Amino acid sequence: MNAESMTMQQSWRQRANDYYELCKPRVVMLIVFTAVVGMFLATPGMVPLTPLLLGTLGIGLMAASAAAVNQVLDYQVDARMARTCGRPVVTGNLSVRQSVLFAALIGVAGMVVLYVWVNPLTAWLTLLTLVGYAGVYTIYLKRATPQNIVIGGAAGAAPPILGWTAVTGQLDPEPLLLFLIIFVWTPPHFWALAIERHKEYAEVEIPMLPVTHGLEFTRTQVLLYTLLLIAVSLMPYVYGMSGVLYLAGALLLGIMFLVYAWKLKFKPRPGLSMRTFGFSIVYLMGIFTLLLVDHYIPAMMGLFG
């Protein structure tokens, strides 16, 4: 391979990586994970392949589109923050025009996949979620109120509902419980990060809670929301949606999260807010994994019994 071919190959790899990073892949993976768990919880057996594969694809594409739109709308703010200054629109690796076209392409593709091959309800709900995050939250709420992440958290809490409707074609009470868990989880998750980055948010005039109400107040809110989250996380068991395994695991994860929140409030030290933020992601993945495993225990016991 000559030098020109190697250079061209490296250029294509860099461009592909830029588009990949434009989609906020780690965020999208968490969204897709909770949506897929919603799919499996919607049926006692195996999820039919069409909603599993095409539903996951469509939801993933539209979530990636929303993430790309968010980066386009926020690129001037992102340029002034250490956490986001390396994003491809900020660095100029991708132009605003390229990013908008890409977001539109994958967003339309995701909508078509969901509407044609899954069901219209899931398509419209996913579109509503995209508009809620990329439009209402990013354009208005983020800059309008310190409760931005609380109100805007509704968009991020929707994936389990989308996964459920992809399988059933209808809304039921069970996915609303999953929605509520993520909705209540979002504030302590994001405020832990905001505590760490409060100076950057202040510099770019984003009214995150630590900026408008101070660190102590925000730490108190993280603790209170964590307590509320523990209570909410028990609702699938109370409702009869899950069993004892989920109950025990949810309580254990909740106590661990509470320890982080308690230390953040009463024994704050450098780096603790980011560790709390990191554990909050582990917590959410653990809760949904427990829901999934607990859901299939009866089938596994029947298989090996």
Indicate how many domains the architecture comprises.
Answer: 2
Distance between the termini: 59 Å
> What's the mean pLDDT score?
92
How would a crystallographer describe the biggest sheet? none
Q: What fold name goes in the CATH topology slot of the largest domain?
A: Tetracycline Repressor, domain 2
Features:
single chain, 305 residues, mainly alpha, Tetracycline Repressor, domain 2, 2 domains
Summarize the topology.
Layout: H1 3-22, H2 25-41, H3 49-73, H4 75-78, H5 88-91, H6 96-118, H7 120-144, H8 148-156, H9 159-168, H10 173-196, H11 198-203, H12 209-213, H13 215-233, H14 235-239, H15 244-266, H16 272-304
Helix pairs in contact: 2-3, 2-9, 2-16, 3-6, 3-7, 3-9, 6-7, 7-8, 7-9, 8-10, 9-10, 10-13, 10-16, 13-15, 15-16
Task: Please characterize this protein's 3D structure.
It is a single chain. The protein has helices spanning 3-22, 25-41, 49-73, 75-78, 88-91, 96-118, 120-144, 148-156, 159-168, 173-196, 198-203, 209-213, 215-233, 235-239, 244-266, 272-304. It folds into 2 domains: 19-169, UbiA prenyltransferase (Tetracycline Repressor, domain 2, Orthogonal Bundle), CATH 1.10.357.140; 172-298. Helix 6 packs antiparallel against helix 7 (120-144). 83% of the residues lie in helices and 0% in strands. With 305 residues, the protein is an all-alpha fold.
